[in-house]
Amino acid sequence: MLEFLLPALIAGIGIAMIAGPLGSFVVWRKMAYFGDTLSHASLLGIALGFLFNINLNLALLVCCLALAVLLVTLQKQKYVATDTLLGILAHSSLSLGLVAISFLDHVRIDLMSYLFGDLLAVTTTDLIWIYSGVAVVLTLLIALWQPLLSMTISEELAQVEGINVDLMRLILMLLVGVVIAVAMKFVGALIITSLLIIPAATARRFAKGPEGMALLASLLGAISVCIGLAMSWHYDTPAGPSVVVAAAGLFMLSQLKRGEA
């Protein structure tokens, strides 16, 4: 049992480590729909990877980062409302990916594993890919924590302090893109954003400060991974959705606690 679940557990904890602090920024800045847009577009990256016969992880990363840059660029133009723009890009990129996959007659693709993830199929190469992303994202978050936090509190004050708000906003979107790229294959395009949002929303109830919230969100994400994998093992449920159900259960418990207070 341990030999079978250990790679999935290590992968899930790695994803939780970066989803916690980054998800805190997503919650603070109300960027949930940004994450959904990037996760929907990740299926287009899968299609392009198969189409051009390139590494799927690399294709996912390039696609997510390209869309993150496009989102920030179009948002600055202010020709279309942000929520409208996100809706257009999310569903059009997802549909384009599905259409592209339908033309790949020579490749057999299990769409369910990409839509809902396959955490139990993690390999050593996958772990290297995940933890490379973890190292990059955590290093940048630690180095840029204060400017990102200042921008989140007040963009106007951050500009007065000499912080390049546009650059920080772009970096934050790129970091979200990296997390979605490394996690999408294992958690799934349709539910990856939930691992960014739910543990952070749960941690917000108990945390005394931003750093505490980020650390607690990572811990809650790791606990959700453990519970979800246990559910998957004992009840033969899909691993990725089970992790999300566990995270949602912890969130509901936190709300009941607040009701008692």
Q: Can you give a write-up of this model?
A:
This protein is an all-alpha fold and 261 residues long. The chain has a single domain (2-190), classed as ABC transporter involved in vitamin B12 uptake, BtuC (Orthogonal Bundle). The protein is 84% helix and 0% strand. The protein contains 11 helices and no strands. It has helices at 2-28, 32-51, 56-77, 82-102, 111-116, 124-153, 155-160, 165-187, 192-206, 210-235, 239-260. Helix 2 (32-51) packs parallel to helix 4 (82-102), helix 2 (32-51) runs antiparallel to helix 9 and helix 10 crosses helix 11. The model has no long low-confidence stretch (mean pLDDT 87).
**Unreliable sequence segments:** none
Assign the CATH class: Mainly Alpha
Question: What's the architecture, going by CATH?
Answer: Orthogonal Bundle
**Residue fraction in strands:** under 5%
* Rg (CA only): 18 Å
What is the residue-averaged pLDDT? 87
Largest sheet: none
CATH superfamily: ABC transporter involved in vitamin B12 uptake, BtuC
Number of domains: 1
**CA-to-CA gap between the ends?**
40 Å
Structural class: mainly alpha
Count of separate DSSP helical elements: 11
Helix content: over 70%
CATH topology: ABC transporter involved in vitamin B12 uptake, BtuC
Overall geometry: globular
The total count of strands amounts to 0
Protein name: High-affinity zinc uptake system membrane protein ZnuB
Pfam families: ABC-3
InterPro entries: ABC_BtuC-like, ABC_TroCD
Transmembrane segments: 6-28, 40-73, 85-107, 128-148, 168-201, 213-233
